[in-house]
Design brief:
The protein is an alpha/beta fold. It folds into two domains: 193 residues, EAL domain (TIM Barrel); 205 residues, Hypothetical protein af1432 (Orthogonal Bundle), CATH 1.10.3210.10. The chain contains 21 helices and eight strands. An eight-stranded mixed barrel has the order 1-2-3-4-5-6-7-8, surrounded by four helices. Helix 9 packs antiparallel against helix 10, helix 10 packs across helix 12 and helix 14 packs antiparallel against helix 15.
């Protein structure tokens, strides 16, 4: 049926997107056994996934024209397969299974001369001798480990002196504190779940500033049984940022309107006709995320659209909008650095949506777990959950790609003030 791919963001120090780690999986075929699905990547598989990803799928759609890290085997490296792919997107990633022979070093130099970036992954610089490749590598990926901080810092300082243009990428960062620690260890690129976790959850008010209070009131009103459009309009008009974002969303090409919306009440009327709650949530999220990476909001949108599109395939077509809202709210604790329990209380989210956000249980909770597992390339668990609904992994992949494209298009329309 094809190859599945999931993207995991790579951030700069300023939490801007540098690129995406692209993880491929050949488990979309129905005739694959678990053993075949979990088999190590070989040259034939790697070549197939790379060609499929860049040409059949169109990897720029997945990376939004940012860098894409793709793992290469030694044979693919020596065969110069990378040269058939766009150098402005591809990052050639070499695993620690590759032996640094003179031929490997020569191949890396040839690729760099053609404009490609070379990344090393899976190495421990304090144990592995990277000397043969240091002159030909652009990025070194290191799994962050608190126990090895001193060793990493020492290596980083030496590398900065000898190879100032080589960047260190800290991977598998699990929380904001590890992100801060990695920055102090001279890492300049960062990867992991840290950006989707709350920085602080204890003794932190859910209403730290007037604008956040207005935003949460807006969400609460939009989740009431009868929406008071006048009250909603009054709240939005009090905040220039929310007003700007509302008008920008409705006036964007995404809506395909033949005329320009010029005032808040008119914009709300259009939103009311086009699933009001959904768009209010989008505007609210973008208004709350000033100090957060835009990828966090993009990921929220991807989850929301993914669950909405998946609904008909799991027998929940009538609950598609509720699933959308749950996906959109699923990272709100990270957006606001506040406990999810406080958020669901303050925003008046319906109990059947609030419960799975808190417990990840029940039918809604299962689907939220499904997209979370897919995001983390936990293919086995994602397949297990999908199989309970008689949904193949290739269907999950197709929905995921549609959700990415939708979210990228919509978030550009929403914009940042």
């Amino acid at each position: 049926m094809g190859i599945c791919v999931v993207r995991q963001p790579v951030f700069t120090k300023g939490l801007n997107i540098y690129g995406y780690d692209l993880l491929f999986h050949d488990g979309c075929q129905e005739d694959k056994t678990p053993t075949e699905i979990d088999a190590p990547v070989n040259d034939r598989y790697s070549s197939r996934t790379i060609i499929h990803g860049f040409y059949d799928l169109g990897i720029a759609r997945v990376t939004n024209n940012k860098r894409g890290f793709v793992r290469f085997t030694e044979k693919l490296l020596l065969d110069m397969v990378a040269t058939i792919l766009p150098f402005h997107i591809l990052v050639v990633e070499l695993a620690n299974t590759i032996i640094f022979t003179p031929e490997v070093v020569t191949a890396c130099r040839r690729l760099r001369n053609k404009g490609y970036l070379i990344a090393l992954d899976g190495f421990k610089p304090w144990e592995d001798d990277l000397t043969p490749l240091l002159d030909t590598v652009d990025i070194i990926k290191i799994e962050f480990d608190r126990k090895n901080q001193d060793k990493v810092r020492e290596f980083a300082l030496e590398l900065k002196k000898s190879h100032p243009n080589t960047q260190l990428l800290a991977k598998k960062l699990e929380n904001p504190s590890e992100f801060e620690m990695a920055k102090k260890c001279a890492f300049t690129l960062f990867q992991g779940n840290f950006f989707s976790k709350p920085a602080v959850v204890k003794n932190k008010s859910i209403l730290p500033a007037p604008r956040r209070y207005q935003t949460l009131q807006l969400i609460r009103l939009s989740n009431g049984a009868d929406i008071n459009y006048r009250a909603v309009s009054d709240i939005i008009k009090q905040d220039i940022t929310l007003s700007y974002r509302l008008l920008r969303v409705v006036n964007s090409a995404f809506f395909g309107l033949r005329y320009t919306v010029s005032n808040i009440r008119q914009a709300l009327t259009i939103l009311g006709a086009m699933k009001f709650k959904k768009w209010i949530m989008l505007i609210s999220l973008s208004g709350l995320s000033d100090n957060k990476p835009s990828e966090l909001i993009t990921l929220s949108l991807i989850r929301a659209r993914f669950l909405e599109l998946l609904a008909p395939y799991v027998g929940m077509a009538e609950q598609a909008e509720d699933l959308f809202l749950m996906g959109l709210m699923s990272l709100m604790d990270a957006v606001m650095d506040s406990p999810m329990t406080s958020i669901v209380t303050q925003t008046n989210i319906s109990p059947h949506i609030a419960a799975p956000l808190l417990t990840r249980e029940g039918e809604f909770g299962n689907l939220l777990n499904l997209i979370a597992c897919y995001e983390q390339s936990d293919w086995d668990q994602a397949q297990t959950i999908a199989a309970n609904y008689s949904v193949q992994l290739d269907r999950i992949f197709n929905v995921y790609i549609q959700a990415i494209e939708w979210a990228q298009q919509l978030y550009v329309g929403a914009g940042q003030a």
